[in-house]
Amino acid sequence: VNPKQDSMASTKEQQECFEAFDSNNDGRLNQEEAATAVRALCRNPTEKELSGVMNTLPGELDFNQFTKLVSAAFPKPEQQDGDLRKLMQMLDHDDNGKVSEAELRQLLITVGDPLSHQEMDLLFEEVAVDDLGFLRGDELVERLVHAHTV
Predict the structure, then answer these.
(1) Rounded to whole angstroms, how far apart are CA atoms 140 and 80?
(2) Which residue, 56, 66, 86, 95, has most beta carbons within 10 Å?
(3) What DSSP designation does 30 have?
(4) Which helix (H) or strand (E) holds 61?
């Protein structure tokens, strides 16, 4: 694997992504489309990181401006693996690899960039929750970090 390719989507991938999210085919992405497109290219910025870069760009982005956005130093999901595993360990009160779905849901709506209830429902569809309301923390991390990486 070419290290440069690994660290950033190719120009062709960026162009394809730009065109896919340019819903009205005007050669521009609004900020919401651009944010979704960045995440589709396996970047995982927080809302704060994203808005910090977006504030330096115009309201709608052409392809060249979009490439500047993509090249920002946003973390890739796999770079967040260790932090997520530490979080799962902190939530694993019985040291059995399981975390409470209810506790995790509460955390996800109150800390950092809160998820909507719909986003959480989609997330929890991806992992098995047992009859007692617990899920395997490592399984959740795998889904979050590795399921959508290229």
Answers:
(1) 13
(2) 66
(3) E
(4) strand 60-61
User: Could you tell me the two tokens for 76?
Assistant: 């890739």
pTM above 0.85, yes or no: no
DSSP of 78-122: GGGHHHHHHHHHHH-TTSSSEEEHHHHHHHHHHSSSPPPHHHHHH
Please count the residues of the chain: 150
Query: What token pair was written down for 92?
Result: 């694993």
CB of 85 within 8 A of CB of 136? Answer: no
Handedness of CA 38, 18, 40, 23 (dihedral sign): positive
Helices 137-146/117-125 angle, 10° precision: 100
- pLDDT digit of tens for each residue in the chain (150 aa)? 333 344 456 888 889 999 999 988 999 998 888 888 888 887 777 778 888 888 887 788 899 988 888 887 676 766 667 778 888 898 999 999 999 999 988 888 887 767 778 878 887 887 888 999 999 988 888 877 765 443
Query: Cα-flanking dihedrals φ and ψ of residue 21, to 5°?
Result: -95, -5
Give ∠ CA 97-77-109 in degrees, rounded to 5. 65
